[in-house]
Amino acid sequence: MLNQDWDIKAIGKACAQCQTLFADHQATMSRLVFGKDGYERSDFCEPCWAGQNAAVEAVSSWKGVFRLPPPPPPEPLKKETAESLLRGLMEKGDAVKKNSMFILAVMLERRRILVERAVQVREDGVRVRVYEHRKTGESFIIVDPALSLDQLEPVQKEVMAMLSGGTEGAAGSPAVTEVPPPPVEPPPSTS
Question: What is the mean pLDDT of each run of 10 residues along the chain (191 residues)?
């Protein structure tokens, strides 16, 4: 018993005896006994606890309060929204938004909605990635703009603005369209 792992489960959702679901902030009684499979936890409502057999040898017993787990946080990015935005940009065929389309495709790939099936290099040296939609089998052909790390942040901001409904800037002009090339720094002087 010295090297015994303590695998004690969390509070149950219902009374171990009457099977009534616990209400939020309801007082509960819990008992820990050592059984053939290790430690076993049982949770009871107060009326059922009062009728429990005192002869059961518990390692521990305690009174607690059942709290409903908080609802899961809202998904920061709805899958359908990113997918519908990518579909909309592809339908328009707007070459200016190729960076955004690429970022959306990568986001959907990470969410396991799209699967990369092939990478092709055109005669002009441009890489084209072929993605397949896992559920529908549709093919998405996305130009890889070969973004560098310092170019990613403005494109990510543009995509997030589009996903939040802000496709236009304040004066009706496009938010961010093309990412300018990084500035060329002069070589260090050796004086």
Answer: 62 91 92 83 90 75 89 68 88 86 92 92 91 91 90 89 63 37 50 47
Q: What helix, strand, coil percent values describe the chain, rounded to 5? A: 25, 25, 50
CA distance 38 to 1: 9
Q: What does the pLDDT read at residue 184? A: 47
The pLDDT assigned to 95 comes to 77
Per-residue buried b or exposed e for 107-118, using 16+ beta carbons within 10 Å of the residue's own CB: bbbeeebbeeee
Rounded-to-integer distance, Cα 28 and Cα 13, Å: 11
Residue pair 42/9 in contact by the 8 Å Cβ criterion: no
CA-wise closest residue to 8 among 39, 34, 29? 39
Q: 41, 48 in Cβ contact below 8 A?
A: no
CB 44, CB 63: distance < 8 Å: no
Bridge partners of 31, per DSSP, are 42, 61
